[in-house]
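User: Hi! Is it possible to get a structure for several chains at once, not just one? Here's what I have:
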Amino acid sequence: MTVTRRGAILGGALLATGGGFAGLLFAGRAAASEIEVTKEMILNDPGAPVGGNPKGDVTIVNFTDYNCPYCKKVAPVLARVIREDGKIRHVYKDWPVIRPTSIDGAQLAIAAKYQGRYEMAHEALMKVPGSGVTREQMRAALETAGIDMRRLDSDLGARNVDIDALIKRNMAQGDALGLTGTPSFLIGPFRASALDYQSFRQAIADARAKQAEAK
Amino acid sequence: MSQNNPWRRVVWALLVMLGALLAAPAGARSPAAGTRPLPADQAFRLSATRLPDDSVRFAWTIAPGYYLYKDKFVFRRGAAGLPAPELQGDGKTLDDPTFGVTTVFHNRAEAVVPVAGGKTGTVEVGYQGCQENGICYPPAVRQIDLATLAVAAAPPQATSSVADAWSAPPARAPAQAAPGGVIAVDDGGGMVSALLNQGGALVVLGSFMLFGVLLAFTPCVFPMYPILAGAIARQGEAVTAWRGFSLSLAYVVAMAAAFGLLGLAAAWSGQNLQMALQSPLAIVAVSALFLALALSMFGLFELQLPASWVNRVGGLGQGRRGSLASAGLLGFTSALIVGPCVTAPLAGALIYIAQTGDVALGAAALFALGLGKGVPLVVFGTLGPKALPKAGPWMARARQGFGFIFIATAIWMLSRILAAEAGLALWAALAIGVAVWLGAFDATRPDAGAGARVARAAGLVAALYGVILGVGAATGAGDPLRPLARLAARGAGGSALVQERAFHTVDSETALRARMAAAKDRPSLLYVTADWCVACSVIERAVLPDLAVQSALGQFNLIKLDVSDNAPAQQKLMKRLQVAGPPTMIFVSPEGREASGTRLVGDVTRATLLASAGKVEDAR
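Assistant: Yes, the chains can be modeled jointly so their relative placement is included. Here is the combined structure:
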């Protein structure tokens, strides 16, 4: 097996936690690096949850992690920008790279998609402070937010393969983009990390201008 | 914020409101905004050196604006973990609601790891960090060969060509400023959206109502009392509290409605109504109106709406319906009088309407503003008729007193467009007029009562003040509170006037861009002004020459945007900068970004200007 960057990251996580890292992605790394990454799949992966206005004229792709403090800081700002703008298509990419339990968070959030509550789950998980959130804390937050936990567990089991495949695709996409960490955003033709309110608006305006130019 | 405690909400709303008066509230700051994070190995450079005692020192050089978590360092040799070494560096404990309590290292971190008899094999080091306000990196693992102490490079990134589809957003360097506008305008969208964001529409309306109550104590509102009193008095003897209440309420609601309509008109016409309200024509007209009111108070004519209007509005022109309607009509027209007093909140609401197109909320906010302003009027209208003594000669005196107040208001308005010394001369004339009215120059009979003597004393004081003002005006002074400043300065042997720092005038975006580029790494102050802008001339006369202000502005690149002509290029630039109208002051960092929470709109005082300038300094 060639050493991929992702392998090293996950190895690092393993190291950092004394080997407790979920084996799922580690085993799947070689396969993940072979996933073909296209711009189309980054923007329009049919499995990826979409929020905002699905018909919006600017797409924001959000590579995020439920143990990432700046993701948590920026989440309400981005939500406000998207709400106020009204024409943003918001594509979520769970990209669990910060801690081993980030993978738990990604799985739980994606599983909520099958009961139509991905965004509710995402928001709830982003509201749990800190960068070392346990799976139990995540489950408690989801339950409080109103996720049907029985349904969630059943989807985690039945949709296991689809969920893991989506996470692997996300991992491969993040790698292919050369992302350095989370949060990472693709805003129209631009890439960015955490932004403040005004910078988001500016980037969106710039993206619109550039898209109009390209037409 | 507690949803359960309404008082906290009120207090909070007041605080926000006051804060919003000084400046738009700050948004989340992100120094890293727009800059692409460094690759992990550039953000955190790891090196290893062998020490004489068979140990290895690992040192990380951490790029500015980046940090490593203290509790994420891991050391391993082969399969075995190494005991946790003591970590040294610029440790700092963060207690952030999002992060929890963590200790992080800035600049550098260091650990000495014993490797007994180890000149072969490898040590694995794990660490993790973040870019401040940017991203957090995945855990990094590096292998160090104990023989050479070389740090193995990070595995190559499997980046594919698909990454080329996205580029960094346009840079925001000062020289090549933001493409959306020469200045990256601070967020918040002004106080309405800040209030809306925090507490919803009710908080917006409540806050504007409170604003109105505060504004009720500005000079523009005084004339409304005699007008309202007149409207109530015409009801004759039988004015009950209830009647007074309903009449004054009709008056106030109509006045508030006029404000709401102003919001609607602003939204639909897209025009800058403030410009209209501040035009010399409007000011002369309002001053003339006040003068007419004053003459009416002196008994030259009876202040009353034409009977034909009242008839049309009231249908029958008599009875309760008619008088309520005429009180309403009076209130509606009175709103014009108050217009010039409400620059700041008016601008706030108008900016919001322009930005969001939310006509309903903007107009409702202005309506609430009008209602708030009317609260004391309603109290006066309800209690007044009972509290006031029976009609008598005193009423004529009271009316004349109001007449002087009206003249004062007319001068106050006019002095905004007149030369300062001309304004002072008018004040001098008024003071002497008051003195005459108070009987300063009448002979006091030996049997005169205490009241007459007090009045005469006050009249003499007014006369003295009038003379001093007149002398001041003759020397070219303009400040009614320091009419002799110029004489004093001359007496002190020379001009005490400071050499004021000059503003560079620009009139287009290109000129502004060039000015800002020329400033290099100094912050800029962009002052939007116009020759017709009344509040601007007050700022230029009373605020900018202040010594403390001058010294605070010393570090700024001072730029003046003169929108007197209201030319298309100027309008465009104002729109870009989200400026509703002059006076507006925008503080811009050397990077071309508006400093958060520093914008000044409307009445700029020494205190607010110093506060904003101080904030810019602190942020550097």
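Chain A touches chain B through 61 residues (CB under 8 Å). The mean pLDDT of chain A is 84.

User: Great, thank you!
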